[in-house]
Structure formats: structure tokens, C-alpha cells
């Protein structure tokens, strides 16, 4: 579940439905069916329908597809829930544990962005910039 970028956005942004995390070719070359959608909410969403047969789901911390106990109950093949970023609060961890589903996040993926933000915040505060 990835977000749809705005019309004027760079189509190569990896976290979007057009960028597809940059892994489509890698996965398809290995015979993996890779479905990317921004339709993630509700029982009739593409995500909910496809999750029923999925072995791995990938979501994002700022555009999360909620992996609830109810969704897990409908996904007997699910083995892994990956966050393409940091955080797992969109996954029902107890339900994942009860169903032997590994929950993974990409720890450290945003350290450069956080460092840049801190440096810019310090500059803004030092120069009293509004």
C-alpha cells in the first residue's frame, strides 16, 4: 500500500504507487506477483481483497494500511508485514504474534532526513528566522 503522488510529482519517488519502492523488476524476475495500490481503506479496498492471498504486505508509516486482527484472520498465507520506514503501530502486533507473522520495519531509514531537520531547526532558532 503506497500513496498516489500528486500529478506534478516526480514519478520516480520510490514511496509512491508510481515508484513502487523500486523493487518491481527485482521481485517479478523471481516470479513474485507484486501488487501496488493506494486503495487501502475499507473492506472492499484493493488492499483488503489482495491481502487475503498475500504472503507479504508492505505499508508506510505516513500512509499506513492498517493490518488489523480482522484482516489478519482473512489472510491465512500472510507471513510478514513490512513497514517501508519506521514504526509498526498500524499492525495489530498481538494478532501478528498469535498468527506467526513477522513484523519488520526499516530501522534507520530516515536518519539523514531527521539530521537535516535538526540542523535546519537549529539554524532557524539561532537566526530567529520566522
From TrEMBL:
GO MF term set: formate dehydrogenase (NAD+) activity; NAD binding; oxidoreductase activity, acting on the CH-OH group of donors, NAD or NADP as acceptor
Domain D-isomer specific 2-hydroxyacid dehydrogenase catalytic: 24-122
UniProt signal peptide: none
TM ranges: none
Protein name in the entry: Formate dehydrogenase
Native organism: Hirondellea gigas
Amino acid at each position: 500500500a503506497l500513496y498516489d503522488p500528486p500529478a506534478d510529482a516526480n514519478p520516480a519517488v520510490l514511496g509512491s504507487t508510481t515508484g513502487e519502492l523500486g523493487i518491481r523488476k527485482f521481485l517479478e524476475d523471481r516470479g513474485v506477483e507484486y501488487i501496488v495500490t493506494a486503495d487501502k481503506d475499507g473492506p472492499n479496498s484493493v488492499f483488503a481483497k489482495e491481502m487475503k492471498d498475500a504472503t507479504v504486505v508492505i505499508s508506510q508509516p505516513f500512509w499506513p494500511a492498517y493490518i488489523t486482527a480482522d484482516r489478519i484472520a482473512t489472510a491465512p498465507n500472510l507471513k510478514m508485514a513490512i513497514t517501508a520506514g519506521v514504526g509498526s503501530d498500524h499492525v495489530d502486533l498481538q494478532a501478528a504474534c498469535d498468527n506467526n507473522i513477522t513484523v519488520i520495519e526499516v530501522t534507520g531509514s530516515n536518519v539523514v532526513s531527521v539530521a537535516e531537520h535538526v540542523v535546519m531547526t537549529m539554524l532557524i532558532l539561532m537566526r530567529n528566522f520566522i
